[in-house]
Design a protein that fits this description.
globular; Nuclear Transport Factor 2, Chain: A
Length: about 120
């Protein structure tokens, strides 16, 4: 899970925060990390808006059995970065679900990185 640059280290920390129960359970913390324009195409194929995803995440219960590997990040412009990684989730029956994930992060005027887009694609 080693990142290769200060930017990658920072974005990896933000991605990990978004997976934590502490952040997922807090509308305020989600608003600090997700842009109001946020959109997601989930692993399921469903599309989500900012309001959809905040409502779903705050309502989650139980452990979050996910991990990140093969993380990388690159700048697409002065204020836009692309993060990609492989996510692994262990279900209740101990089966593993693998997902290729990508996130677009924007450096906002207040100096915070906020996710504006995320996509999860199921993979073997």
């Amino acid at each position: 899970m080693s990142a290769a640059s200060p930017l990658a280290d920072h974005l990896l920390a933000l991605e990990l925060a978004l997976q934590s129960r502490e952040v997922r359970g807090s509308e305020q913390k989600l608003r600090e990390l997700l842009s109001p324009e946020f959109r997601e195409f989930g692993r399921s194929g469903l599309a989500y808006t900012f309001d959809d995803i905040v409502t779903r995440l705050v309502a989650e219960t139980g452990p979050n059995n996910t991990s990140i590997s093969d993380f990388s990040a690159e700048m697409l412009s002065d204020t836009i970065a692309l993060a990609t990684y492989r996510g692994t989730r262990i279900d209740d029956d101990d089966s593993k679900l693998f997902t290729n994930r990508s996130s677009i992060w924007r450096l906002d005027a207040d100096g915070r990185w906020r996710m504006v887009f995320h996509q999860g694609t199921a993979t073997a």
